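Structure first, sequence second, as always.
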C-alpha cells in the first residue's frame, strides 16, 4: 500500500521543494511513501486545480508546509492548503526556510493564526520531521 505526503511550498521555492521531495522519498522508501508536489505531480490537464489540491491533501497522511519569506509575500494557495490540512485533520509539519519563528511572528499581518499557533521547525531539521512521520506511520499501521 502506497502512502502520500503533501508538500506545500511557494512557487519561488520550487527547487528547494524538489530537493526536499527527493530526500523525503529516499528516507521513507522502505515505508512506500511518496511526497506529492505541485510541480512534479499535478496533472497538466487538470481543469480544477483547487479541487485537485484539496483531494490530494485529503488523501495524504501528512502535510509538510515549507514557509519562506516568499510565502509571506503572497501565499493564498498555501494558506488554502494549510486550511484543508487542518479541516481534514491531516498532520501538518511546518518547516521554516530562510526564516525563523521570531521573524514569522513579527510579520504576522495576513498570516493565518493556525500557522502562528503551529510548532515551527527550522528547515534544516527536516530529518526530525521524517522521524515523526515514521512514528505516525507506525501508529497508523498498528491501528489498522
Amino acid at each position: 500500500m502506497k502512502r502520500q505526503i503533501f508538500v506545500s511550498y511557494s512557487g519561488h521555492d520550487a527547487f528547494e521543494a524538489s530537493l526536499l521531495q527527493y530526500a523525503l522519498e529516499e528516507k521513507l522508501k522502505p515505508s512506500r511513501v511518496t511526497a506529492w508536489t505541485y510541480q512534479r505531480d499535478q496533472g497538466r490537464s487538470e481543469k480544477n486545480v483547487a479541487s485537485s489540491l484539496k483531494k490530494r491533501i485529503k488523501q495524504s497522511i501528512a502535510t509538510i508546509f515549507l514557509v519562506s519569506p516568499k510565502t509571506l509575500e503572497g501565499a493564498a494557495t498555501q494558506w488554502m492548503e494549510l486550511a484543508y490540512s487542518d479541516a481534514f485533520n491531516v498532520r501538518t509539519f511546518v518547516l521554516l526556510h530562510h526564516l525563523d519563528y521570531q521573524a514569522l511572528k513579527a510579520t504576522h499581518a495576513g498570516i493565518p493564526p493556525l500557522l502562528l499557533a503551529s510548532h515551527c521547525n527550522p528547515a534544516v531539521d527536516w530529518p526530525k520531521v521524517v522521524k515523526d512521520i515514521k512514528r505516525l506511520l507506525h501508529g497508523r499501521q498498528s491501528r489498522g
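Margin note: The CA atoms of residues 82 and 114 lie 8 Å apart.
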